[in-house]
Amino acid sequence: GKEKWPRGEEKVWKEAMRDLDTDVSSITKSFVNHVQTSLARQPYNLDNLGAYQAAALSVRDNLLVNWNETSLQYTRKAPKRAYYLSLEFLMGRTLDNALLNLGLKDKYADGVEQLGFSMEDILDQERDAALGNGGLGRLAACYLDSSASQELPVWGYGLRYKYGIFQQLISPEGNQLEAPDPWLDNQNPWELPRLDVAYQVRFYGHADRLNDGTPRAVWAGGQEVLAVAYDVMIPGCYTKTTNNLRLWESKPKRGFDLNSFNAGNYEGAVESSNSAAAITSVLYPNDHTTFGKELRLKQQYFWTAASLADIIRRFKNIGKPITEFPDYVAIQLNDTHPTLAIPELMRILIDEEDQPWATAWQIVTNTFFYTNHTVLPEALEKWPVPLLEHLLPRHMQIIYDINLLFLQSVERKFPGDRDRLGRMSLIEEGFPKQVRMAFLASIGSRKVNGVAELHSDLVKTTILKDFVEFEGISKFGNVTNGITPRRWLDQCNPELSALISRTLKVDKAVWLKELTRLEQLLPFAEDAAFRAEWAAIKQRNKERLAHHVQVTLGLTINTNAMFDVQIKRLHEYKRQTLNILGVIHRYLTLKNMSAAEKKKVNPRVVFFAGKAAPAYYIAKLPSPPNHRQTIRLIVNVARVINADPDTKDLLSLYFLPDYSVSLAEVLIPASDISQHISTAGTEASGTSNMKFCLNGGLLLGTVDGANIEIAEEVGESNVFFFGHLTPAVEDLRYQHTYHPVPIEEKCPALAHVLNQVSAGLFGDADVYEPLLNTIRQGDHYLLSDDFDSYIAALAMVDEAYLDRTEWVKKSIRTTAKMGKFSSDRAIMEYAESYWNIEPLSVV
Ligand code: OX2
């Protein structure tokens, strides 16, 4: 039946509520209107930043109309929804992406030009939203884009950090310096404060079991803080669907803590308001490391508690019994960071909804899904029991109860197997005892997945082996990661996108959402004219990068060289050190060449970018890793090599500071070859490998993570693989420990390179000794085992690049076969095989 219009005259409302007009003159009107009213400025004093703000506010109006309509449809149709809980969303810039997804970029460009601005300058004013460390956070951002583009009812939940990932500065000596990232300093047009959406979150206090025959307890006292919602609009590509990313900000419950204020304790009152605000003040720069820091645990609980309260309130509006919760709600845990959601939902169901334990556990284990992103032991979260007991006493009780019942059921299946009970317990014995979050996430979830085939196999056979044996293999799956082709092709490489649309004779609106259509490019690899266009675009992207480096760093780059790129967080397992030692090897080789030999050498420019863990941070580790020395070595090798007249035309090296999503958008389309050279079995997936290949860059890598699946798609002849395979790694490490062979014997080429560094060829000899010694002794990441095959692979890359026709063919074939790696495919796998949700179209 027809619903009754809620208030006033329907006609008047409806006429005013039309979608916004999007012809160029309406766009300039809206832009100028924001200049005059929202910004209160004049054409006389409007700079690029003001123009960016006006354009953003105007685009945001369009997003809000769609966002509202989408929310209304979700409320009306009450479909099952999925929620993506991630402590990190590495969004980057929004304006360009929003314009492209709305299909309005050309019109806005036209409009702002008429008003005397250039679109490029305007886009360049935006600061990155850098609320993440690396791959895990960027994956979350790609999944939001794909969810909206595939019209799936998916919301993200995260934290609104006042400061994102630190800004990286490099001192003249090559030291990394860190500065705060005040990204919210100039108003953020992409968020909508929802001061009316707020929840109280409790910490500390005491939990008393009722012992009335129910499992209930009362948790009281302690500190209460307020979680306030900020909503970020997530537009789908060529669809009205505009989803929501809800970020929580912490606030004191009252402006002051009145108790202490009344007692005359002014300082204490201010202190407690500070501590509430501190919860969401800064993103932890952890990438693959965990620390038992109270503030981090507070962040995790604050965020999961607020998100669950919000999800439950929305569910209750549907009016269904709580036992039907999993029919309407799926919650994806992005790594173990939100695992406290499991005991928190138990607490709500038992203490507040008065459900029996078994019913509550049934609801919980049908609601959550857990994605593991690493098997590195140092990255697996564990929280000290005393800290949990202090901060979250009720949750600690619940975790003990879950553990007891769980171990009883393990004992029933494997009677008398005490070792197994010890291995599988949620509580690791020791001083202090610790809660193993990956185990809690696994047993509390409906399904568990890894992020690439190899990684998912490793999860099943190593860290969660006992759980597979106990719960059955069908609970454990794989969803290979993906990337959004909107940002990582259409937006960052507009010329290539246009060439693809022309060649496929189909609008990008189609192929960007059906990326396997790129396969139709395959025959064009044989077309010389097409190859010429393809190569010319790569060349212009290299010039665009060179221009960027010229403008930002004042350095001149040889764009006739091969561009060789490694950009990612600095980490021992990612082996940036292998790369720089390879560069030194190349340098030493060039130095020994005759002029005639040099003539045959292809010039190469090597780029590095990436952040290392901050100094104060790694100082707390038992054995600090050497990322920072690696940066220092790269910078100092660059200083020597780039100034050496014997070699500088053939080899140069750059460390680009402050790696970010925006910098990646310039670097990736410019790369001829990129390096993904982790020790086999350590990089769960990698996602930048997919971005480079989608943009026609070739891959030099180990047989690891998603590299393997990329090679399966594009063909092994189009990638450069080297190094030992995963099954060999364990044996090799055993050899290193129990039968060490001196590096001079084992790998003379590497020994020579190390000795040159030790001898001071790049200055500061003693600074690098600890770094070099990790390779000479122990060599946990197997540089000495892989160095020779790495050098051989680099030579094969050189060789292949000499035949430019064949190289361009490889490049085209690579792009053509990357369809699988669209995050649309990945998100549909989650939707269908995990969450059981369906697209809902908003018209
Ligand atoms: C990263 C993994 O290291 C990387 O291989 C993967 O592609 C990415 O997550 C997205 O799945 N923190 N970051 C990661 O794992 C952890 C833990």
From TrEMBL:
EC number(s) recorded for this UniProt protein: 2.4.1.1
Cofactor: pyridoxal 5'-phosphate
Subcellular location, record wording: Cytoplasm
Class of the enzyme per the UniProt entry, highest EC level: transferase
Catalytic reaction annotation: [(1->4)-alpha-D-glucosyl](n) + phosphate = [(1->4)-alpha-D-glucosyl](n-1) + alpha-D-glucose 1-phosphate
GO cellular component terms, semicolon-separated: cytoplasm
GO biological process: glycogen catabolic process
Keyword Repeat recorded: no
Gene Ontology molecular function, alphabetical: glycogen phosphorylase activity; pyridoxal phosphate binding
Positions of modified residues (N6-(pyridoxal phosphate)lysine): 691
Keywords: Allosteric enzyme, Carbohydrate metabolism, Cytoplasm, Glycosyltransferase, Pyridoxal phosphate, Transferase
Source organism superkingdom: Eukaryota
Pfam family, one: Phosphorylase
Cross-referenced InterPro entries: Glycg_phsphrylas, Glyco_trans_35, Pyridoxal_P_attach_site
Function summary: Allosteric enzyme that catalyzes the rate-limiting step in glycogen catabolism, the phosphorolytic cleavage of glycogen to produce glucose-1-phosphate, and plays a central role in maintaining cellular and organismal glucose homeostasis.
Similarity comment text for this entry: Belongs to the glycogen phosphorylase family.
Name of the protein in question: Alpha-1,4 glucan phosphorylase
Organism encoding this protein: Mycena maculata
